[in-house]
Write a structure and sequence with these properties.
heterodimer; A: about 250 residues; alpha/beta; 5 helices; about 30% strand; disordered N terminus; B: about 100 residues; five-stranded antiparallel β-sheet; three-stranded antiparallel β-sheet; 8 strands; binds flavin-adenine dinucleotide; binds zinc ion; FAD-bd_FR_type (chain A)
Chain lengths: ~250, ~100
């Protein structure tokens, strides 16, 4: 981890909102400037802390959705109705505002770009955020299966199209819609099932790794389905965002 | 210490990976890659793959195989308490 060079405990550090980008009507990406930030490994997250004028603090975890790089990072937040932190990040924070972050965090749900094994990335809703970082940094064959309720709920639509076009066949992207499909879509809307997974899964002898991320219920279902279709449980890594899906 | 103000019944846990921040602050190292052997069923897995319940009191990590509590982190006034009685062994990679 980048901060391991600094002896002692992990601490909070200042981050400035440099820019924001709407992803959907209820989600946006925040570009955060952080002095001395040395980058991350795709899949890692940061904890973001807000402090109210009366001193009350709250923090939540957000995956890093940008490619690794120095001095800045991006997080992509889906507003949860009645949530304490996410509506502030999606609707209120403006360029110039200061927050606190700690990270980069977590050495387990990570894909090192040089890892030669092919990867199957499966995201539900905002669970695509850490997978987007993996896609942006991909140096080895990568398949993304992205499940959302409808096309208008999908994050990173144009970034994913760009990654698919630029990667020279390295990156493949498949969308699954559970409630509303686009006009002319070949399949009716339906939940992600074993059949859809089998169609994008790597062959059993490919030694593929799977990364599954999204609402806790989604991750439970997908991890079980992967085992059912023959994926080695030891090569499945999961990141659950909690019941709301974040 | 709580990371949510929430109360739903539906799958209210996250992965042990979410402990990277609080444990990094307390211990000064990434404990999510530490492997714990569950005292309930004797299976071993990284803390990142345990189930974490963060809706107080404190943070509780349970074995996904048998649901035994393998780690509990509580903050009292002035101290952090890390209760490991539910784990037989905690192993960490030697720093490179
Ligand atoms: C490692 C990690 C990475 C994450 N990355 C992202 C990301 O990239 N993008 C993103 O948008 N979100 C992400 N999340 C989710 C995020 O941390 C927050 O949980 C989310 O933004 C909701 O926070 P809030 O303060 O708005 O809502 P809260 O105030 O925490 O909760 C609002 C409502 O949601 C329900 N709820 C929320 N959490 C729980 C719970 N644990 N148990 C029961 N009910 C609950 C309750 O009904 C509650 O009233 C991640 C979570 C983890 C653990
Ligand atoms: Zn157990």
């Amino acid at each position: 981890m980048a901060r391991a060079a600094v002896p002692g405990r992990l601490t909070w550090q200042a981050a400035t909102v440099a820019a924001t980008r709407a992803e959907t009507a209820t989600a946006r990406t925040l570009v955060l400037d952080v002095d001395g930030w040395t980058g991350h490994v795709p899949g890692q997250h940061v904890d973001v802390r807000l402090t109210a004028p009366d001193g009350y603090t709250a923090y939540r975890s957000y995956s890093i959705s940008s490619a690794p790089g120095p001095d800045w990072l991006e997080v992509t937040v889906q507003a949860v109705t009645d949530g304490e932190v996410s509506p502030y990040l999606v609707d209120v924070a403006e360029p110039g505002d200061q927050l606190e972050i700690r990270g980069p965090l977590g050495g387990w749900f990570v894909r090192r770009p040089a890892d030669p094994r092919p990867a199957l990335l499966i995201g539900g809703g905002s669970g695509v955020a850490p997978l987007m970082s993996m896609v942006r940094a991909a140096m080895n064959p990568t398949r993304l299966l992205y499940s959302t309720r409808s096309p208008s709920d999908a994050l990173f639509t144009s970034d994913l199209a760009t990654a698919r076009a630029a990667g020279d066949g390295l990156v493949a992207v498949t969308h699954v819609y559970t409630r509303v499909a686009p006009p002319g879509w070949p399949a009716p809307p339906r939940r992600l099932d074993a059949d859809a997974l089998s169609r994008v899964a790597w062959p059993r002898d490919a030694d593929a790794v799977a990364f599954v991320c999204g609402p806790t219920g989604f991750v439970e279902t997908v991890a079980d389905l992967l085992v059912d279709i023959g994926h080695d449980p030891a090569n499945i890594r999961t990141e659950r965002f909690g019941p709301t899906g974040g | 210490m709580s990371t949510t103000n929430a109360g739903a019944e539906d799958a209210p846990w996250v992965d042990g990976n979410a402990l990277a921040g609080p444990l990094g602050e307390i211990m000064g190292a990434d404990f999510t890659v530490a492997e714990l052997t569950c005292a309930g069923c004797r299976t071993t897995r990284p803390l990142a793959a345990m189930r974490v319940f963060d809706r107080a009191p404190g943070l509780v990590a349970r074995c996904p195989h048998c649901e035994h509590v393998v780690m509990r982190v509580v903050r009292t006034t002035g101290r952090f308490l890390v209760d490991l009685r539910g784990s037989l062994v905690l192993s960490l990679p030697v720093p490179q």
